[in-house]
Amino acid sequence: MTLHEPTLFVLLLLGYAMLGLQLVTASRRLFGGEALRGWGLGNSLMLAGYLFLLVDVVAPQPVWVVASNGLIVLGEFVFVAALQRFVDQAPPPRWLVMGGLACALSMAPLMMLATPTRMAIMSLIAAAPLAWGGWLVVRQWREAERSLRPVGAMLALVAATLLIRCVHAVLQPSAYVDMTQPNPVQTLVAVAAYVALLGAGFGFVLACTERASRSLERLASHDHLTGALNRQAAEPLLAQALRRARRGGGCVAFVLIDLDRFKQVNDRHGHVFGDEVLRRFAQTVRTRLRASDLLVRLGGEEFALVLPDSDAAGARRVLEQLRGDCREMGLHTEAGQACPVSFSAGIALSPQGRVDGEALYRAADGALYAAKRGGRDRAVLAGADETIPA
């Protein structure tokens, strides 16, 4: 099967031009702007590489072959660097950047080789970054956005067609002596580059859109400082836990926590350090919670815990462990002064889910104030003359 190559090149140019326009527009609005700009740079390099294929009538062949292949390979590495930045949410490794430059520069000395040998080596070089991009997506298959999966598959598809051309050039070198003769493998590579690489670009934009949507959802349901749920998001989850307890006959423990003398921390050491205390406290709490437990920031230094299938003993155990963890946090101010963290807590129980969320909050709030009146750094169980001492 062969196709009209000039038509393929025109389609490639139009496709990359349209993708470039979309990337410029999307990078200004979507989460992951740096990764999108990186993909846009790769797209521009690919576009320039295919443009060089059209100057063979006015420039010597070695010039446009080196320029075209160098830009295309460099564009592939930039694509993959942008993908790695997006997946890992960190700058791409230095070896990836340097490897792209080295591979692009290697196109010039490769011109000294026979055409079939050169095509085999070039195909192998071009396949390497795309195969790595496919692996990046496979590595994060479950955690990554669903729309990123086709991106990895398409990059792997182009890598596979390039490897096929590499093998074909080794086994059938006569097919690559005269590059003007029809070659079905060359056609396959051109079609794959058009369909898969462009599809990967549009898929990458969709993945950024998906991540932006998830980010907005998280901002709407979580406290931006500590990562804990906000009260609006936690209320329906608490109601759901109570319904499950009614059906299964379990008990839900609701705990209100207030950091002791937190206003003094802000007044003495500043709000920036106070924010760090809140972040570290929330991180410490999360290490003690099960997957079914909820951490909620109600405001200021006040938090809540929702502990499904937990009674007074279970809630007490969590708070005792958390109190020990807080002593070991080792927070120090910029001046090197130690800043111990303690908290007061009120515990309320809903056996078999019979106590609703509002009543739980009132009961836990009353127990919390009893803990504060009792000297702080302790917990009180609502409805019982039971104090968990410091």
UniProtKB/TrEMBL annotation:
Residues 250-384 form the GGDEF domain. Pfam families: GGDEF (PF00990). PROSITE patterns: GGDEF. Gene3D superfamilies: 3.30.70.270. CDD domains: GGDEF. The keyword Membrane applies. It catalyses: 2 GTP = 3',3'-c-di-GMP + 2 diphosphate. InterPro entries: Diguanylate_Cyclase, GGDEF_dom, Nucleotide_cyclase, Rev_trsase/Diguanyl_cyclase. Its EC number is 2.7.7.65. The chain crosses the membrane at residues 6-24, 36-55, 61-83, 95-114, 120-138, 150-171, 191-209. The keyword Transmembrane applies. Keywords: Membrane, Transmembrane, Transmembrane helix. It comes from the Bacteria. This is diguanylate cyclase. It comes from Rubrivivax benzoatilyticus.
